[in-house]
Design brief:
There is one protein chain. Helix 8 packs antiparallel against helix 9, helix 11 runs antiparallel to helix 17 and helix 14 packs antiparallel against helix 15. The two termini are about 75 Å apart. The strands form 4 sheets. Strands 1-2-5-10-13-16-19-22-24-26-28 form an 11-stranded parallel β-sheet. The protein has an 8-stranded parallel β-sheet with strand order 8-11-14-17-20-23-25-27, with no helix packed on it. A 6-stranded parallel β-sheet has the order 4-9-12-15-18-21, with no helix packed on it. By secondary structure, it is α/β, with parallel strands linked by helices. The longest helix is centred in the C-terminal third of the chain and has 38 residues. Helix 2 links the parallel strand 1 and strand 2. It contains 17 helices and 28 strands. The protein has 3 domains: about 180 residues, no CATH class; about 140 residues, no CATH class; about 150 residues, no CATH class.
Length: about 625
């Protein structure tokens, strides 16, 4: 019993000393800004304080909790602060309004800070529609576990019912940053064992390009987040070609980088120490010139939108290794250094391997989640890098092997996107077939029975029809007379031989004769229905010649179009036959095109082989 009493007394003394050590001065929001205005010095300092909402005086520090844009942007005049601010261990205690649950009491909103602002060791900061014209240094650090003790202290106050919000961290909505900004959030070293929700939200903010102190530097914004539960960086705009966003997420349960517009700026993304339970969402962003990415490991739960990264990606990890070989660690990265790095990508083997390794990670990730479209796109970019490397190697040290690999890669990209798109191979093959068919069209081949004489025969037929006092079917039968006489001779032979040969030959020969002349008779029957002339052209009255000539010319053109169609069809079929290397044992064309047909056959064999491999690869995938 004595031991228990001693333990209780020890705990009471310990809590009393902690309370005295962590006792914070308490001010209302309006009082804080009154103190800032009354400060005679150009620098305002405040340490170890609580900023608490006072319903009687702090109505200007009240905002909608739904974070809608209308609740953030208002016609309220911006409050201007023209002093350097340094706030150390100052806690802004946001609470829910007692009457309206959609309202937050106690937010810093509609304030323009003209000079440098520093927040250090603050467990909770809400910033709505603020403008930072000078530098902003915002450190949510956990130096010597002070923040941990602060949160315990505040939580004890909340448990008494005074405050209702139990979310710690940082909320920045619709704010504007015009100078160097460093936001470093590192609250709890062992946050996974911590019971509270530690959240950072940066939403609908704008980062403007500013004039750096040195001409070789860029306008840099450093966003560093470690050991928190949730990170949301969404709907923000980063403006300026020489603007760099340095984004680090380390030991963060959920990292969301969504729907941001980076315009011409570059971003360096580093996501490290991702554990199995962690979530990552990089999607719907509009990236500018370059995106540096460093991710330790991928998980199927991770969402990385490749479409926004395509053609802009480089390895941040490899870039760091390259940059800090010649620069001390404290030197800021600039776009000039980035351009130098990208120019060295093909020359430096370590850089090239690092770039391939990053894309290899993405390739495996998309393969694991069965995202074939993104996987193929990453593979194409990876092979493009390889092709550029081969071109560089050939220019620096020419060899047939390098040249051959380079040109084969170029052809595979053009023909089938490196085997990822067999449909493109079919389209490309059709172009080759049509190209050679056009050549064959102007040269005779054994498949075209009439050849060049076909059109001349059409002229002869129509002139003969207009000069003769006969129907068009009669002129047609007259032209077919040599063939008909041959068929008629065959028929007479059958009739004369009837008593002298077995009936089998007569019974099978006569149907053959009728079938042979059936086509000619059918054509003649059809032509008899469309007899335009009733007599000769010379005998036609003048008033009928106009519309008769229109009909005759129309019929002639239809016949010519039909002849051209057959000629084109023959050339196309010849090209297909040659491309597919069917051959039929001969090349049905003479002269120079005969050699082109052999060349086309080789091209067709090569292309069809690649098409087959591409198709099989896609089927296996």
């Amino acid at each position: 019993m004595k031991t228990l009493t001693s333990l209780v007394l020890f705990l009471l003394v310990s809590w009393s000393s902690l309370s005295q050590e962590m006792e914070l001065k308490r001010y209302s929001y309006s009082k804080l800004f009154q103190m800032i205005e009354e400060e005679q010095d150009t620098i305002f300092r405040l340490k170890n304080a609580e900023i608490v909402y006072n319903e009687a005086t702090d109505s200007l520090f009240q905002a909608k909790a739904n974070n809608s844009i209308d609740s953030i942007i208002s016609t309220q005049k911006q409050k201007v602060i023209n002093k350097v601010l340094f706030l150390d261990n100052v806690q802004f205690l946001t609470s829910k309004d007692k009457e309206d649950e959609t309202v937050n009491n106690g937010v810093l909103q509609h304030i323009t800070f003209l000079k440098e602002v520093t927040f250090s060791q603050c467990a909770s900061i809400p910033l709505f529609n603020c403008h930072f014209k000078g530098r902003l240094y915002l450190f949510l650090e956990n130096r010597d576990n002070q923040i941990d003790n602060i949160i315990n202290y505040i939580q004890n106050t909340w448990n008494q019912g005074e405050f209702q919000t139990a979310t710690f961290g940082l909320t920045i909505l619709n704010c504007h940053f015009y100078n160097e900004t460093v936001i470093a959030s590192s609250l709890i070293p062992h946050k996974l064992d911590y019971p509270y929700n530690l959240t950072v939200i940066i939403d609908r903010c704008t980062f403007y390009e500013y004039q750096p102190l040195h001409e070789n530097y860029n306008s840099n914004f450093f966003l560093i987040f470690r050991s928190i539960n949730n990170l949301h960086f969404a709907n923000n705009r980063i403006i300026g070609e020489s603007t760099l966003i340095n984004f680090v997420s380390d030991k963060v349960d959920y990292t969301g980088i969504e729907a941001n517009e980076f315009l011409e700026s570059s971003i360096l993304l580093r996501v490290t120490e991702m554990q199995g339970i962690n979530l990552l969402n990089i999607s719907k962003n509009s990236f500018g010139n370059h995106v540096g990415l460093a991710i330790d490991t991928f998980d199927p739960k991770h969402i990385v939108d490749w479409e926004s990264l395509k053609g802009k990606l480089f390895s941040t990890q490899t870039y760091d290794n390259y940059f800090y070989k010649t620069n001390p660690p404290y030197i800021n990265i600039s776009t000039k250094d980035l351009k130098s790095y990208l120019d060295q990508r093909l020359q430096d083997k370590d850089i090239f391997k690092g770039e391939l390794a990053l894309r290899g990670k993405l390739l495996n990730h998309y393969n694991d989640i069965l995202d074939t479209e993104s996987k193929n796109s990453v593979y194409i970019e990876l092979k493009d890098l390889e092709t550029q490397k081969l071109a560089y190697e050939y220019k620096t040290a020419p060899s047939f092997d390098t040249y051959f690999q380079w040109k084969v890669n170029q052809f595979l990209k053009l023909f089938s996107n490196y085997g990822t798109k067999p449909s493109k191979a079919i389209i490309f093959s059709l172009y080759v077939i049509i190209f050679f068919a056009i050549i064959y069209l102007f040269f005779p081949n054994s498949w075209d029975s009439h050849g060049r004489k076909r059109i001349m025969d059409r002229f002869t037929f129509f002139i003969k029809y207009m000069k003769k006092d006969a129907g068009i079917h009669e002129v047609y039968l007259e032209d077919k007379q040599p063939d008909l006489m041959e068929y008629e001779a065959f028929k007479n032979l059958l009739i004369q031989a009837s008593p002298q040969v077995p009936k089998f030959f007569i019974m099978t020969g006569l149907p053959l004769y009728k079938w042979t002349i059936a086509r000619t008779n059918l054509h003649a029957s059809i032509l008899s229905k469309f007899d335009i002339m009733k007599g000769t052209w010379q005998d036609l009255p003048l008033k009928k010649r106009f519309w008769k000539s229109i009909l005759l010319i129309g019929a002639f053109l239809v016949a010519i179009i039909y002849d051209l169609f057959i000629k084109i069809l023959n050339a196309l079929m010849l090209s297909i036959n040659t491309f597919t290397t069917l051959g039929f044992g001969e090349i049905p064309i003479k002269g120079f095109p005969r050699y082109l047909a052999i060349l086309q056959g080789f091209i067709g064999w090569f292309m069809l082989t690649i098409f087959s491999v591409s198709l099989i690869s896609q089927l296996l995938n």
